[in-house]
Every structure is written in C-alpha cells, then in structure tokens.
Amino acid sequence: MIHKKIPVIALIPARGGSKGIPRKNIRILQGKSLLAWTIEAAKASVTVDRVVVSTEDPDIAAVAEQWGAEVPFRRPESLAADDTPGIEVVLHAIQWFQKEVQVEQDFVVVVLQPTSPLRTTQDIEAALEMFANPKVQAVVSVCEAEHHPWWMNTLPEDRNMRDFLSPQALNTNRQELPVYYRLNGALFAGYASYIQSHRGFYGPNTYAYIMPQWRSVDIDTEVDWLLAEAILQRRKEH
Known about the structure:
Blueprint: E1 8-13, E2 28-29, E3 32-33, H1 34-43, E4 50-54, H2 58-66, H3 86-100, E5 108-111, H4 121-129, E6 138-144, E7 181-191, H5 192-198, E8 206-210, H6 222-237
Parallel strand pairs: 1-4, 1-5, 6-8
Antiparallel strand pairs: 2-3, 5-7, 6-7
C-alpha cells in the first residue's frame, strides 16, 4: 500500500466534445451517467484522498459535483479539442495542484477515464498497492489481447495474402501462442514527478496492472456502449 503520508489524487478527464457518442460522459448507462460510474469507484477507494474532474464543460462539472467529485478548476478550451494529447490534460492538472494548492511534496495521480465504467474500486486499490514496491513509479492497466497479433497484418492493394502470416505463426495452435497484452485505458497512475520528467506514464519504472477482458471495455462507439450495458445488466442479475 502507498505510504499514508503520500497524497493520492484521482483525476477524471471528461471533456464535453465527443464525436463517436455525443455527450457520452453524461449519458445514462444502467441508471446513472457514464461519469458517475467512475466517480463512485474512486470515492469508494480508501487510498484515494481527492477525486477531481478535469473538464471545460459546465454540464459535466455540475454532474461531477452532484456525484461528490471536486471541480476546483476549469480545463482551458485549448486542452479540450479532439486532437489534444491526454498527457497535456494530466500535466495541466499536476501544475495546477503544485501552484494553487502549493503541494510541496510528491504525490500520486491516478487517471481514471470515464469511458471505462467496468473498472472497480478493487482495481484502483490493487493498482495503488503496487506502489508499495519502491521500484514502482508508475502503473498502467492492461488486459490480455482479444486477437493475437501474430494473426494480423496489413494488406497490399491487390489483397494478396502471400506474406500475411509470418513463418512463426504458420501451423501454430492458438494454445501455443505467447500471451500478448494490450493497454485497456482504464487506469494510469504515477508519481507526479515521474509523470512530469517522462511527460507521460511510461518509463523504466512503469509496471503493468493486469485486468480481465470483461472489465476492460473502453466505450468509444455505440457497440462498446451496448457491450458495457449488457455486462452491467448481467452483473446486476447475478
């Protein structure tokens, strides 16, 4: 577990614009807004000290506060565009805390995207427990890849598949393939100083937190939404 004296801030980035599913962050999913699922999971964590939503949208800010999250600053419009790198939003929040709150000691930021409503409080706790190891400076969530990359390739214009599979993939049973993992977007955590020095969560002291595929749904399309809805309904029934 993280040392109790080290502050832990849960940062939930939630902008108003969304091309795939308009206004998805405040759209209702199984009885509550998509944003609310992540706020509830973060607030239930005994390790998280503050739950902060970064947004430029007044409607999202109102929903966030309704569910008990803080909105202590408004994200600049320049950091709410479709092509804004996510790390810029994180760095903006870190700088705000360092300047406005005058946080002098290092602290841990755990970024929880609202598009991962199936991520649980237990996932947040388990990922933060990894920081008990002094080697761990950042943690990123992954899950096993649904489709093995050895069976994937690009296609030429004529769609000829002569070189589609590599020699190592030919005549190899699925059970014999090495396990590959993918980023699932559910959780990124790290010391503020580490995030700033690497301008991201990836570096020599970044470790993986493995989640199951069913909790790794990342909502970007209507199909993703329907899948999350079906899983949540099934979970409610059992």
